[in-house]
Amino acid sequence: MTSPRPLRLLAYAVLPLELVLVICLAGGVRIPAPVLGLVEVLVAGLLLAECLAYLRLRRSGLSRRDAVAELVPGPVLRLLGHELRLLASLGRWVARRPHGTAGADGVFPHARDQAALMYGFAFVCVVETVGMSYLLARWPVVHGIVLVLDVYTVLFVLGLHAASATRPHVLADDVLRLRQAAHVDLRIPLDRIASVRRETLFSHGKADGELNLAVGAQTSVTVELTEPVDAPRLFGAPRSVRVVRVHADDPHALYRAVNEALTRARTAPSPGPGPLPRV
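Now predict its structure.
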C-alpha cells in the first residue's frame, strides 16, 4: 500500500494543478475535456489513496490525530487548526464563553484597545464586498468566487478579534498563560519567571529571545524569564524567548496578580523534617 511520503509528494503536484484549473475556468479559459477528466481522476485517486492510508495507519494503532499528522504536512495542519480556532472563537464570542478560564486564579482580557481598529477594518471589507459584487455582476462565476473570498475575509477579521476577546491571559495552577488571537498560546511556569514589571511601550524592535504580543501597537507588562521557553511560530518553527511583553485591558491587575503569585511561590514554607527515628 502507498506510504504517506509519496502521497504527500503527489498531493503537492495534484492540488496546485487543480487550483490552476479552477482559476482558468473562472477566468473563462477553455480547458480541453481530456485534460479536465485526467485531473479529476488524479484528484479522486489521491483522495482514495489518502483514505486507504488513513485506515491502514489507524489499524496499526495510531490515534486519529497521529494518523492525520502522518498524511498531512505539519504546517498545513497548524494553518487549518488556526482557521478552525478563529471560526470557533466567533461562536464563543456570540455565546460569551471564554476559552481556558475554568478554575483560573486570574483572568485578564486584552482585546479592548484593538476593538475600534478591527471593527473599522471589518467595515471596510464589507464595503469592498458590496462594491466588487456590483462590478462583477456581469460575470457570475467570477462574482461567485470573489464573493466567497470577500465574505471569508470579513469572517477572518471578525474571527481575529473574537479570538482575542475569548482567549484572555490566564493565571492558574502556578502557570501564566499569555495569548494573542488564535496563534499564540504561551504557558510559562511561575518558577521560570525572574521578574515582572509595568512598562508601557509603543515601539518594539525585533530582537532574538524577545516576544512582543502588542495590542493596538502597545505592550504594558514585561515578563523576564530565568531560562528560555519555546514559543512556536504559526507554522510550528521553534522560537526560544526569555523576554515576553504583553498588553492587558487592566495591566495593573495583571502585574499585581503575577507579583503576588511569585511572592507566594517563593515564600512558601518548606516541608518540616520527619519524625526522628527511635533509638
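Residues 33-59 form the longest helix (27 residues).
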